[in-house]
Amino acid sequence: MEMERMSSREIAIIGIMLGLALMLELIPIEMPTVWGMKIDLVAVPIIMAYLLTGFVGGLIAVLLLFAGLSIVSSASWLGAMMKATATLTVVFGLEIARRITNFNFENPERGRLIRFAVLAYLVGVALRIPLMVALNYYVALEIWLGIPQEKVVEAVEQWTGVPFWVAIGLPNAIQSVIDVFIGLLATLPVLRRVPHLLE
User: How far is Cα 172 from Cα 166, in angstroms, rounded to an integer?
Assistant: First the structure.
């Protein structure tokens, strides 16, 4: 996809996937965690938008996800920021893995697909967990819990019974599994049936 201009096809794909993501937010298929984060499918259509339109399309989809969730989500702009930021790390992980493995979406060989998916997950998690730990500590939990920042770690550890970084990191690691692998599993059959989507 050229950075200067998006095709009508790419705009349509991003719009459809954004609508699906917002629908999944409003009609949730989710599993709540002990400290409040929910494991859901909201980011999967955004990952599909990346896989179908490329890196720039993925970035635009993440930005639009933030805007859309800020309007429709019960978690307001703060939850939208956290979701969009976490999803952005997944997109970066996928793009970095694609460049390292030279993965070709038009002709996905099984072995290369597995290497690409695992590397994308590992890179994404390596970006996501430290960033989410920092954002939760410095920004989100202080606002959501209504307590001073210096009490955030203690409150979360008392609430969850596990170290702070585990309470934040483990649900994000699980969410990344869903984002990466379900995103790929949902996209590849589409590409097999409609290969010209990548043209």
Answer: 10
What is d(CA 57, CA 48) in angstroms, rounded to the nearest whole number? 10
Q: Is 135 helix (H, G, I), strand (E, B) or coil?
A: helix
Calculate the dihedral angle through the C-alpha atoms of 28, 30, 36, 42, rounding to the nearest 10 degrees.
-70
DSSP labels, 157-192: HHHHSS-HHHHHHHHHHHHHHIIIIIHHHHHHHHHH
Angstrom CA distances, 103 to 47, 98, 99, 108, 109, stand at 16, 5, 7, 7, 9
Please tell me the distance from the alpha carbon of residue 73 to that of residue 66, in angstroms, as a whole number.
Answer: 10
**Which tokens hold the place of 57?**
């399309």
Place of tokens 């430290």: 130
Q: What is the pTM of this model?
A: 0.91
Coil, helix or strand for 32?
strand
Look-up of token digits 């400290």: 35
Q: Give the distance, in angstroms, between the CA of residue 80 and the centroid of all CA atoms in the same chain.
A: 12
Question: How far is 182 from 190, CA to CA, in rounded Å?
Answer: 13
Nearest to 44 by CA among 23, 70, 68, 73: 23
In which band, very low, low, confident or very high, does the pLDDT at 55 lie, cut at 50, 70 and 90? very high
Name the more confident of 101 and 109: 101
CB 154 within 8 A of CB 13: no
Mean pLDDT of 69-94: 95
